[in-house]
Write a structure and sequence with these properties.
The structure is a single chain. The chain has a single domain (3-248), classed as NAD(P)-binding Rossmann-like Domain (Rossmann fold, 3-Layer(aba) Sandwich). Helix content is 40%, strand content 14%. The protein has helices spanning 3-7, 23-34, 46-49, 65-79, 109-137, 159-179, 205-213, 227-234, and strands at 14-18, 38-43, 56-59, 84-87, 140-145, 184-191, 245-248. A 7-stranded parallel sheet has the order 3-2-1-4-5-6-7, sandwiched between helices. It binds nicotinamide-adenine-dinucleotide. This is SDR family oxidoreductase.
Length: 260
């Protein structure tokens, strides 16, 4: 076995990925399955789950706390343990580079509640449910997909989205401090703009160019560029990393965005 194989070994580990049917979650799930992990791919979109190979597909809406608890219990019953969880499922509503966020007195309350239900509460449900079996086994790695939008103001992202993502960043820090005594590590990744289905609709060259221009490296990320981080956090390579917020953003945080 090479040093790289040893350091990033995930063989036989049991990994749950939420939002695994598309985009970043799909890339994470397929990477780890391809490297020998047992991957439970959860998503509320069953049609998307059917397109995945070599994973255990699990229809799940993370906004339903009881369903998340049941799903985690079922994973542990069937596989005996739970080593890594990627709390990744998320949505975006409103705003975008062609449609600015609008002002604080005008955001839609429907949008606010619907988004927090998934991007904040859904993540909390997932972290909460995962902590129980991990405490019993006294090990585990929890990884939350946050966003650069949770680390700064962003004129092109909705109020609900920036607030939910800022919330999960501090959820990660609090849980990292709390769970360290059980040797459970909790970290966040903060992607910049990636080419996924989160915006809905057809790929739009103009929006893609504008998002690309908002990043120091001058382009959007490809979901495959998360493969290394998936392996890092699911393996012993990150054994001394907890409470971190790891930007994978092509340098988006280095430059400010302005409305024109
Ligand atoms: P995506 O739309 O391609 O994939 C998200 C997946 O999550 C979809 O398959 C969707 O069905 C699923 N999902 C949505 N709500 C769910 C729920 N309630 N329960 C279970 N599954 C649900 O989007 P993506 O870009 O891959 O997003 C993944 C994560 O990355 C999200 O948390 C998103 O906020 C975050 N993120 C994305 C970007 C980006 O530019 N794409 C940037 C920063 C952060």
């Amino acid at each position: 076995m090479s040093i790289a194989d040893e350091v990033f070994d995930v063989t036989g580990t049991v990994v749950l990925v939420t939002g695994a049917g598309s985009g970043l979650g799909r890339s994470i799930a397929e990477t780890l399955a391809g490297c020998g992990a047992t991957v439970i791919a959860a998503d509320r979109d069953e049609a998307r789950l059917k397109q995945l190979h070599d994973v255990d597909a699990l229809p799940l809406d993370v906004s339903d706390a009881a369903a998340v608890e049941d799903a985690v219990s079922d994973v542990v019953r069937r596989h005996g343990r739970l080593d890594t969880v990627f709390a990744n499922a998320g949505i975006a509503r409103g705003a975008g580079l062609t449609q600015p966020a609008g002002s604080v007195d005008a955001f839609e309350l429907d949008d606010w509640h619907a988004l927090l239900e998934v991007n904040l509460h859904g993540v909390a449900h997932t972290v909460r449910a995962a902590a129980r079996p991990m405490k019993r086994q006294r090990s585990g790695s929890i990884v939350v997909t946050a966003s650069t939008a949770g680390l700064r103001a962003d004129p092109f992202v909705s109020y609900s989205y920036v607030v939910a993502k800022a919330g999960v960043v501090n959820l990660v820090r609090q849980a990292a401090l709390d769970l360290a005594r059980w040797r459970i590590r909790v970290n966040a990744i903060a992607p910049g703009p990636f080419k996924t289905n989160i915006g809905g609709g057809e790929p739009n060259a103009e929006a893609e160019a504008r998002w690309g221009a908002s990043v120091a490296l001058g382009r959007m990320g490809d979901p495959r560029e998360l493969r290394g981080l998936a392996l890092l956090f699911a393996s012993g390579a990150s054994s001394f990393v907890t409470g971190s917020v790891y930007a994978v953003d092509g340098g988006a945080l280095l430059q400010s965005m302005a409305l024109d």
